[in-house]
Amino acid sequence: MEKIYVFGHKKPDTDTVCASIAMSYLLNYRNHSFEAVPKILGSINNETKFVLDRFNIKVPKYLNDVKVQIRDVNYKKNLYVDKYDSIKTAYDLMTNNQSSGIPIVDSKDNNKLVGLITLKELAKELIDGDRRQLHTSYDNILKVLNAEEVLRFDDEIVGNILAATFRSTTFLSDVELHNDTILVVGDRHSILEYAVESGVKLIILIGNSEIKQVHLDKAKMNKVNIIRTEMGSFDVSNLLTLCNYAININASFEPVIVKDSDFLTDFEDMRSKLAYSNYPVVGKDGSCLGLIRITDVNEKRRKKVVLVDHNEKTQSVDGLEEADIVEIIDHHRLGTISTSSPINFRNMSVGSTCTIIFGLFKQQNIKIPDEIAGLLLSAILSDTLLLKSPTTTRIDAEAVNSLANQLNINYEKYGLEMFKAGSSLKGKTFEEIIYQDFKQFTAEDVNIGIGQVFTTNYEEIEAYKDDYIKELNDIAINNNYDIVCLFVTDIITNGSYVLFNEKARSTLSLAYNVPEIEEGHYLPNIVSRKKQMIVAILDVVERK
Questions:
Q1: Do 268 and 287 meet the contact criterion of CB atoms below 8 Å apart?
Q2: Which of 53, 248, 398, 519 is the most exposed place for a label (fewest CB within 10 A)?
Q3: Could you tell me the residue range of the domain that residue 31 belongs to?
């Protein structure tokens, strides 16, 4: 079943994670032709962990990228031959699949790749190879010559091919037979008698020739293998070489392989340098999965994705340009993402993405399971700071009251528990705290990074203020940011303390009308990054 990945931004907060899970549930409920899978693009924070544990929901798995991989290409899957298959089998598979090469595997060792046959090597073998030697299985000979079994004593046949083309008297007097002789002969009974008495390895009866019972009895006594085919001497002689094991052509050949997890772009770079036509595809366990040709890359399946809580390319998953965006659910400003075809794009000026998703459940008259209701409630409370943020709308409040009533929860009491669990910074580095909810923006060629943390005790950050400032300056220098800020939002006082890199000082002074703003300055009622932080900073940047 086709998968659709549902995810938020790279610094997942409670709204991002809960929206991914709730939207996946909604998509799966209303459409069974695909499987919507929630994903995260980074580690979850303590608040989100508290929420998922509270409602017994597993943390979504990490999604590294959505780049097109070899597994997404319509390559020749399961196109390979076992090393003990015949050369003829390999050739037929190449012809039927319009391929100039085919991988050789060891089917007894998890289809481990052992070589690659190409038409070039096959032609070389037929022209320059020793066509008198045969090393193959009894079954291969039966299959290639379309023959029937008469007597079988050996499953593997190794020997020298000899066709009885001389007159019988000449043959009997001048030709010496051995126990490794593979004799191609018709109903020439004197030669057949000589062959079974000599104990040759194999007799190939051509033209559906008969063999006398007395010769059969002798063949049994001397363990002579016999097969019968309706083909003539000429056809049999030409085809016998093709009965050989496929591995005999290039036992030491080591082809250039491609892993099914490799990115298509990397493969295209490699093939442009090597210019080979065929590349075996292997899995992570080394097993061969098939063959990719240079012409196969035109048929590929792009991963399908649904974005929640963001529509900025810089905030999204790596390789997004190689994916098909089928839907976006967001409550932020319009960003930099574009699509090649029309999509469902629901963008509303509300406090939380989960408020929008709550509305989708209601509009479509779909019952919200309690665990999903818990996630939606938690996300809305988180993003609206218990409905106190300036981003809060009537729609957010109505959603919170409805969900709280369904769950019989005092949302204010629950919200404080959630914020208390999420505000703990114990065990985290300064860098981890800055980046735990960090978003980047670009305006007028100015690169901006804004982190936000929530706390009920600013003193635990203030005690290390100088360390945070040093880290912010290092982040700006190392990542080419012009402005980097950390807003420490106090849930109790409903305001934020701001720390920043030195280059950001003048911009923040203008943004908040605070002359010569100092590190750790308290900004009352500034709690929303979307409406009060980034907007104020961008306004100054765009006016400069």
A1: no
A2: 53
A3: 2-68+303-422
Tally of domains in the chain:
4
Fill in the DSSP letter of residue 510.
H
Say how many C-beta atoms besides its own lie within 10 A of residue 218's C-beta. Answer: 17
Task: Find the angle CA(62)-CA(6)-CA(390) to the nearest 5 degrees.
Answer: 100
Specify the amino acid at residue 86.
S
Mind listing the pLDDT tens digit for each residue in 160-203?
999 988 888 888 888 899 999 999 999 889 999 999 999 999 99
Q: Which residue type does 447 have?
A: N
Quote the pTM value: 0.72
Q: Give CA–CA dist 21/379, Å, rounded.
A: 11
- Is residue 76 domain-shared with residue 57, that is, in the same domain? no
- CA torsion sign for 382, 60, 19, 374 is negative
Residue 116 has which token pair?
A: 């690659």
Higher pLDDT, 541 or 16: 16
Span 512-534, mean pLDDT?
91
- Residue 449 sits at φ, ψ, to 5 deg, of -125, 125
What value, to the nearest 5°, has the Cα angle with vertex 507 and ends 501 and 508?
Answer: 75
- The answer to the question of residue 135 being in a domain is no
The token pair at 178 is: 């051995």
CATH number of the domain that residue 50 is part of:
3.90.1640.10
What are residue 349's phi and psi, to 5 degrees? Answer: -85, 75
Q: Check residue 533 and report its DSSP letter.
A: I
For residues 351 and 437, membership in a common domain is answered with no
Amino acid code (one letter) for 42? G
* Gap between the Cα atoms of 72 and 57, Å rounded: 30
Q: What is the three-class DSSP state of 156?
A: strand
The one-character DSSP state at 527 is -
DSSP characters over 201-268: SEEEE-TT----HHHHHHHHHTT-EEEE-SS-HHHHHHHHGGGSBGGGT-TT-----EETTSBHHHHH
Residues 277 and 214 in one domain: no
| Number of DSSP helices (H) and strands (E) in the chain, helices first | 19, 24
CATH number at residue 193: 3.40.1390.20
- Tell me which DSSP letter residue 74 carries: -
- Strands 148-151 and 225-228, by their bridges, are antiparallel
Is 514 among the domain residues?
A: yes
Residue type, 229: T
Residue 68, CA distances (Å) to 72, 230, 280, 392 in order:
6, 52, 18, 39
In this structure, the answer to whether residues 354 and 503 fall within a common structural domain is: no
pLDDT tens, position by position, 424-473: 777 789 998 898 888 888 888 889 999 998 888 888 899 999 999 999 99
> Nearest 10 degrees: CA dihedral of 201, 204, 209, 212?
10
Q: Say if residue 265 is in the same domain as residue 349.
A: no
Q: Which residues have a Cβ under 8 Å from the Cβ of 130 and sit 6 or more positions away? A: none
The continuous run of DSSP H or E covering 188 comes out as none
87-96 and 119-128 helices, crossing angle to 10°: 140
